[in-house]
Amino acid sequence: MITKDKAPTAPEDDREAATAPASDHGHADHKTGTCVMNRREFLLTSSAATATFTVMVTLNPGSSEAKEVPAAVATYPRQLIGKLSELNAHDPLDFNYPDEGEYSDCFLVKLDREAGGGIGPDKNIVAFSYTCTHQGGPLQGTYKAEDAVLGPCPLHLSTYDMTRHGILVSGNAYQSLPQVLLELEGDDIYAVGVFGLIYGRYDNLQA
Questions:
Q1: For the segment 152-194, what is each residue's pLDDT rounded down to a tens digit?
Q2: What range defines the domain where residue 155 resides?
Q3: DSSP for residue 86
């Protein structure tokens, strides 16, 4: 059995959130002792730094040794990374996310076409990791405006499509480029999560 601390309610506002290509539905599974957050819960528990919330987890359910223990669950930080009004088409804006650790280099870019996970009036503003998923090659300086791709990687020529959630289009990599999930609140653009595993990490929140 799981009980979760009640999250604070948030007023309806003008936030616009990008969605990853996966289900946004979540639930607490009382039978298996796992907790799956939906996207609204995810955003409500995020803040300017890596946030945590507490769930109660039942150990040894159905036995005489059953007991509830608290478990802290970490969520991605909600980080201001840019202004909508200050973005120029095809001019990448660099930032670090979800921390300042190794392989945290990312970029925000305004494309000239709609993109998967894009935000803004034209759904064409996206953000991705700068680190190739193959062997960690640096992808800074490889953005190609005419094709809206990142690459080729200087190591093994991997190239990624920024309009289709960073899917690989050529080269030796076998995973898509991690996409930074974005939220637009007024003119402010926030990073609120990462879809995909950042190269060199076993957990995106563990640098």
A1: 999 999 999 999 999 999 999 999 999 999 999 999 999 999 9
A2: 80-195
A3: G
Q: CA–CA separation, 39 vs 193, rounded Å?
A: 10
Catalytic residue among 25, 27, 30, 156: 156
Does residue 6 belong to any structural domain of this protein? no
* Residues 71 and 173 grouped into a single domain: no
What's the CA gap between 185 and 135, in Å, rounded? Answer: 35
Residue type, 149: V
Condensed to tens digits (0 to 9), the pLDDT of residues 27-75 reads 444 344 433 444 444 344 333 445 555 666 666 766 787 777 775 556 8
CATH code, 169: 2.102.10.10
Cα–Cα distance measured from residue 107 to residue 200, given in angstroms and rounded to the nearest whole number = 18
Domain assignment of residue 4, yes or no: no
Given the residues 27, 90, 134, 165, the one annotated as active site: 134
Q: For the chain, how many structural domains are there in total?
A: 2
Q: Which of the 8 DSSP states describes residue 40? A: H
Give yes or no: 90 in active site: no
User: Which region, left, alpha or beta, applies to residue 157 given φ > 0 means left and ψ of -120 to 50 means alpha?
Assistant: left
Distance CA 34, CA 51 (A): 19
Nearest Cα neighbor of 109 from 180, 169, 15, 175 is 180
Residue 203 lies in a domain: no
27 noted as active-site residue: no
Last residue of a domain, one of 37, 53, 75: 75
The Cβ of residue 43 has, within 10 Å, a number of other Cβ atoms equal to 21
